[in-house]
């Protein structure tokens, strides 16, 4: 798929400086540009590369004025970084614009779907499934009974969507995700063994939720495990039964959240964070990577450590911890004297 500088400028509402008929068919970093590639310059420290890049077209800010001769055609825009991101979305949409039902695949007769859908080979669509418009379900994907999938949602290869799950509009579920598996519910019996507690709830993903590869979200024991609008989850995250994650919260890889914990809106949670169950985390909370959260957190707190506490206190304490061997040595010398 090829685009000219004039076509790209039209999409970005930019101005072409150079040959408007210059064509590109791929994307690249500015320092790795090749003929036929489109790149961008947003960070000033990469400015020297614009004079040596072999990329055919470069998106730059309106304020950019070359100090030496350049070979690349320029497209000037208000914000080069934002414009390139917009173009990446456009390119990705065009690349992923598959339509139709591939065979072999199984689609239950009781299921319903909207227009312009794609269902890849070896996919399974269960009874009473509802699929919206423009949904893309890539090969080897399982969608259980009574699942609802909103418009413009994408399920990548190997995703497993258990029964009763509700998925909103414009969601992205990456490969290897397991949505709606049983929560970790077991009760000890008189013999010391564990009996399974039936998990009869479901998982609800609201609109614009992105879920990274290998992430698991367990169904509720009763009611719903809920991921609110705009939440972004990284790879290999575990979210247990009856958890609720507030809108626009972002969580990095390998974080684990135990059952029935409620996380507020606009939180930022780093990688490898462990959060105990049955607590409440407020809005606008920031938790640094590898922290352990064992109690409820108020709005706006910034925490680090395991168990976690205020980041300012953590930083001061860490200075003393680093010096602990020296301090112990000094104490020993004082004792000897």
Automatic annotation (TrEMBL):
What GO annotations for molecular function exist for this entry? UDP-3-O-[(3R)-3-hydroxyacyl]-glucosamine N-acyltransferase activity
* Top-level taxon of origin: Bacteria
* KW Lipid metabolism (keyword) present: yes
Q: Which SUPFAM superfamilies match?
A: Trimeric LpxA-like enzymes
- The record places domain UDP-3-O-[3-hydroxymyristoyl] glucosamine N-acyltransferase non-repeat region at 21-89
List of catalytic residues: 241 (proton acceptor)
Q: Which reaction does it catalyse?
A: a UDP-3-O-[(3R)-3-hydroxyacyl]-alpha-D-glucosamine + a (3R)-hydroxyacyl-[ACP] = a UDP-2-N,3-O-bis[(3R)-3-hydroxyacyl]-alpha-D-glucosamine + holo-[ACP] + H(+)
Give the pathway listed in the UniProt entry for this protein. Answer: Bacterial outer membrane biogenesis; LPS lipid A biosynthesis
Instruction: Give the EC number(s) under which this enzyme is classified.
Output: 2.3.1.191
> Which UniProt keywords are given for this protein, alphabetically ordered?
Acyltransferase, Lipid A biosynthesis, Lipid biosynthesis, Lipid metabolism, Repeat, Transferase
Instruction: Keyword check for Transferase, yes or no.
Output: yes
Pfam families found in the cross-reference section: Hexapep (PF00132), LpxD (PF04613)
Please give the function described in this protein's UniProt entry.
Catalyzes the N-acylation of UDP-3-O-acylglucosamine using 3-hydroxyacyl-ACP as the acyl donor. Is involved in the biosynthesis of lipid A, a phosphorylated glycolipid that anchors the lipopolysaccharide to the outer membrane of the cell.
Give the UniProt family note: Belongs to the transferase hexapeptide repeat family. LpxD subfamily.
Oligomeric form and interacting partners: Homotrimer.
Name by which UniProt lists this protein? UDP-3-O-acylglucosamine N-acyltransferase
């Amino acid at each position: 798929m090829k685009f000219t500088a004039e076509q790209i400028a039209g999409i970005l509402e930019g101005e072409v400086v150079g040959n408007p008929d210059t064509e590109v068919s791929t994307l690249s970093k500015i320092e790795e540009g090749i003929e036929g590639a489109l790149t961008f310059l947003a960070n000033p420290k990469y400015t020297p590369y614009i004079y040596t890049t072999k990329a055919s077209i470069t998106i730059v800010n309106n304020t950019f004025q070359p100090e030496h001769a350049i070979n690349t055609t320029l497209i000037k825009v208000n914000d080069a970084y934002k414009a390139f991101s917009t173009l990446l979305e456009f390119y990705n949409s065009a690349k992923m614009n598959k339509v139709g039902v591939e065979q072999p695949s199984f689609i239950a007769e009781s299921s319903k779907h909207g227009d312009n859908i794609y269902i890849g080979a070896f996919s399974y669509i269960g009874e009473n499934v509802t699929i919206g418009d423009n949904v893309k379900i890539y090969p080897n994907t399982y969608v259980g009974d009574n699942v609802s999938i909103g418009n413009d949602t994408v399920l990548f290869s190997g995703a497993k969507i258990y029964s009763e799950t509700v998925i909103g509009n414009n969601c992205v579920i990456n490969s290897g995700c397991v949505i709606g598996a049983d929560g970790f519910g077991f009760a000890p019996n008189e013999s010391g063994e564990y009996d399974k507690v039936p998990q009869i709830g479901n998982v609800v993903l609201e609109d614009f939720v992105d879920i990274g590869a290998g992430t698991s979200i367990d169904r509720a024991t009763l009611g719903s495990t809920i991921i609110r609008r705009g939440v972004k989850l990284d790879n290999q995250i575990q979210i247990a039964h009856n958890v609720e994650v507030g809108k626009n919260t972002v969580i990095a890889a390998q974080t684990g959240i135990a059952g029935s914990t409620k996380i507020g809106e606009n939180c930022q949670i780093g990688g490898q964070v462990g959060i105990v169950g049955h607590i409440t985390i407020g809005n606008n909370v920031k938790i640094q990577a590898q922290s352990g959260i064992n109690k409820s957190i108020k709005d706006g707190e910034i925490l680090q450590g395991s168990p976690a506490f205020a980041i300012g206190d953590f930083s001061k304490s860490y200075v003393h911890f680093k010096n602990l061997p020296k301090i112990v040595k000094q104490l020993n010398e004082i004792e000897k004297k």
